[in-house]
Amino acid sequence: MTNTTDKKTGISRRSLLKTGAAAVGFAAGSGVITGFPTIWAQNPITLRQFGTGVSNLNAIADKCKADLGITLEMTATDSDAAAQRAVTQPDSYDIADIEYWIAKKVYPSGVMQPMDVKKLKYYDKIVPLFITGKLTPDSAIAQGTAPHTVGFVEAQDAKTFAKEPTQWMTMVPTIYNADTLGIRPDLVGRDITTWADIMDPAFKGKAAILNIPSIGIMDAAMIMEAMGNIKYADKGNMTKEEIDQTIDFLIKAKQDGQFRAFWKSFDESVNLMASGEVVIQSMWSPAVAAVRSKGIACKYQPLKEGYRSWGGGLGLAAHLEGAQLDAAYEYINWYLSGWVGAYLNRQGYYSAAMDTAKQFMSEDEWGYWVDGKAAKGDIMAPDGKVMEKAGAVRDGGSFVERMGKVACWNSVMDEDRYMVKRWNEFIAA
Amino acid sequence: MGGDRPSPLLSPISNFARRGANSEAANLPPSGGDVRQDRGGREGSQLARLSALRDTPGLFQMTVVLNQPVATTAANPARRRRLSIGTLAPYLQATPLALILGTFLLLPILMIAVVSFWDYDFAAMYPDFLTTNYADTLGSWVTWKTYLNTLKYAAIVWALTLLIGFWVAYFLAFHIRTTAMQMVLFLVCTVPFLTSNIIRMISWIPVLGRNGLVNSTLVQMGLIPKPIEWLLYSEFAVVLAMVHLYTLFMVTPIFNTLMRIDKSLIEAARDAGASGWQVLWNVIIPLAKPGMAIGTIFVVTLVMADFSTVQVMSGGQSASVALMMKNQMSLLQYPAAAANAVVLLVLVLLMVAGILRIVDIRKEL
């Protein structure tokens, strides 16, 4: 499609020169710039990538430019806007960097095309969690929108997800992690072992959960189940009754004054924890690192029920063709080839192809971030700041220990709208 | 809005103007165009005396002016044709403003009203005519509770800002002798407004927090055994921040009306034997009512539309109408948010209409 439009624009450009500069400007804006034909291949190709911010990192764009000559134009949005944009403006991006639960909403609308695994150089290196759903052959498959359930389609033009791995992959995983509760070890005054501990009367007025309905409800579900109040068939896809029970429980806890606040953004969660307003709350791992970087003790506490996990991946827009499609494959192969993986691992996330990332990390880095060993020297953040002092051990331990204990994945429920309505009631109550 | 109601409280200026207008009108043939032009001219000279703040009432007057000729010209079609340029001029004068307001205010509001009837899912909106958005909004106890909560904030914040605002304005207007000093002190009042709303709001957090300035001071002084929890992330915090943010909107219009009170009225009251309180109650407050009404409109509309203060200062624990809308928008439920916006708009307009009904804000202009 790009090639044909290029031919057309080539002609129209000539004719447009006669008709007016304004029209040329419009044509340039609408695709002449991005879709150079193969004769221009020695010139840099631009890929427009949009996504949810976590992995829209400038360092990756810079390195991509240096290694491949491909210019990455990145746009970051929040996840709901990303879902909307993926569906409603499919021509505005070449690569969608979205979470798997978004893909579950977006992919069936036909705006993306699957990737041929034969063209993915490092397909065999991708962590099996994204292929079969099992990190190790004997691990259990987690609830929610597990990535492997939306990872493949039956055929190139299929819109429904395949039950088994096929030749056609919807998204190549890029970045994922396991979330749990963050605590202030100096202020909680006892061992925290279960999600139920956040409801301990001892922490009345000192607990917080996040006010993003689709994720907050999952944390609430982990808490509910840990307290033995309910046993969900699937936490990631609750029935109306289950939603009612969960929200009613939250409303009661709120009215009893259990919560200090509900946070919506990363920095809010950091401030709540750093100021001591809250001693136990749902948290994201970079937020824990941010609290620690202020010299305040903060722990990403592993809990016996397991983690709530999330993952994102790169998907191709349906309109990609020819040279641009080749460039996109080249970019994705490069993404999995190790440098990016090492970069993400050093931030405390996990990369999809661990084996390739290992080659780009020092033994000590690999030991700390992935193997769960004590750091021999200081652990640096990618920007050169000291993140952890020598001797530190990562909360939750090794990659296998953490990702092997995922209880559920971020997901989108069939009763999504009802859930959001009830969640609003919880916030208003 | 009640603009043509003859009011016994008309200021001498407008009384004079009215008398002038009446006599001129008597001399002239009963032509809509002429009368209107004359009124327009008077309007202009009056407007020239107005401070920037009083533009709003100016608009009301303009509406009256524009409405008037329609009825009269219809009665005199022949006249109208002959005076077509004269008839057209004021319309032309009003065109730029009408265009701006039409494009940037009326059209968007109309679009919101239209969208509020549409259907939607996570990805898109579908043109339709559904009342479910309204049924969902008005049928849910969350909406009612949230509206009540927002109205509660509006009432408390209004009462406090009115009290504080009047006090400050009274002090500036009657206790500061020189105009220069009055202006300096008035500018001092506006100094906090040199920073953004958000910063003024967020700066309360380290002050009120559990380990914040207030709590740590009180604990160290031994006045309280442990930190007071309700200082931050509570309704108290929301009201405090709102009063802090919005008091100036009350001070400015009240100060403006107080400055325009004829000092001889106060002297006359004193001569008649009124005490200080009686002067305040029977002379100053009645004359300050238009300023209070304008301030009230500012404060009430600001509080009703607020979401960031409620979100930040209550720690997400309290709900306001605008916050509810923001939640819906962030989940891309635009039609639901639009329905909510229409309901809020109607409510706020009714409140403003009520205020204008009680106090004639034109009478001091």
UniProtKB/TrEMBL annotation, chain A:
It comes from the Bacteria. Signal peptide: none annotated. The keyword Disulfide bond does not apply. Keywords: Membrane, Periplasm, Signal, Transmembrane, Transmembrane helix. InterPro entries: SBP, TAT_signal. This is ABC transporter substrate-binding protein. It comes from Mesorhizobium mediterraneum. The chain crosses the membrane at residues 21-40. Pfam families: SBP_bac_8. SUPFAM superfamilies: Periplasmic binding protein-like II.
